[in-house]
Amino acid sequence: MLNYDEVEEAFWVSLEELLGSAVERIWELPYGTMIVPQWLVHPRVPLWGATAVILSELLVLYEGWLSQRATPSASTPTDQH
After folding, report:
1. What global pTM score does this model have?
2. Which of 11, 34, 40, 71 makes an SS bond possible with 27, Cβ 3.0 to 4.6 Å?
3. What is the pLDDT of residues 22-41, one digit of tens each?
């Protein structure tokens, strides 16, 4: 349930839609420069910050899972009758 005291709006975006659609944003910080991901998934507010960093890590895992699904493993037993 959406708590409107904390969140104004919620919406769905598929992982497939997010794959490869991040743009890099450069942050100049007192201790150095950071290149961070950002997704333009909303007309007014990009998906950025800690949420984007966590999401980028999730997408790395998701891409690995997709590639494992697409390529049969050598250790997968085969049916030999």
Report:
1. 0.71
2. 34
3. 999 998 999 999 888 999 99
